[in-house]
Structures are given as structure tokens and as C-alpha cells.
Amino acid sequence: MLARARPGEAYRESNFDVRLKASGRDDLVLICLDDLIENLGVLEITESRGDRTARSRTLTRCVTALTALEMGIDREAELASSLMQFYGAAKGLLLDSIRTIDLAKITQLRGDLREIAEAFRAAKLGALPA
Fold first, then answer.
1. For 6, which DSSP code?
2. How far apart are CA 68 and CA 40, in angstroms?
3. Tens of pLDDT along 70-81?
4. DSSP calls for 67-105
5. DSSP label of 50
6. Residue 39, class by beta-carbon neighbours within 10 Å (0-12 exposed, 13-18 middle, 19+ buried)?
7. Which of 42, 82, 45 has the alpha carbon at shortest distance from 60?
8. Is the pLDDT of residue 38 over 60?
């Protein structure tokens, strides 16, 4: 039914589900980061179109991804407190965006998340056996 009403959204959801099912534990952080980055881009588009319904759905997906990232932080890791603070501030920005979106801050957040994702990817590649 979703595929008929909103085929793009149905594709994104099925793509996300397949990636989750096919992934290992180490991939989940990257999947959540990639999903969040993608949805922040969708948020920028929905805002430029003035589509409040799509904006609401997209904000919900973004906050859900951030919550998953927060819950998945290894509290013993060296960067745990920094990540908690960053994700908390990002969630605050998104919740503030329910009323008014600051696209410059959303764009900056997207860039910061890309850097984090690149660092996680590099760390994962470095951890692979030779």
C-alpha cells in the first residue's frame, strides 16, 4: 500500500530493512549514520518545497536514527561522552526544527555526520584482519 501512495519512501524503507537484515553488528552504526545523513538531505528538500507533512515524517526518522545511535554508544569507549553530547545537541536541533528549520545548521550537521561516518568507516577498515 505504501508503495502505491509514496513509492520513493517505500523504496527507502525497504532498502533500509534489507541493509539491516544483511548487516553485522559493526555495520549498524554506519547504517544509522547513512540513514540520518540521507534523511537530513530529504529534510532540506521538504523544507524548500514547503511540504510540512513530509517534513514531519522526515524529522521523526532523523530523531529515531539519532536515538538509535545514542543507545548504541559503547559507554566505555574513549569518545563516548563526546558522541553523547554531539548526538544530544543534534537531537535538540531537530526537535527545534519542528517549528522552524535553520537550513544552515542542518547542512552543517549533515557535514559533521559525514565526517563521523568517514571516521567510523576508516576505523572499521583498519580493524579488518590483513
1. -
2. 16
3. 998 989 989 899
4. HHHHHT--TTSTTHHHHHHHHHHHHHHHHHTTT---HHH
5. T
6. buried
7. 42
8. yes
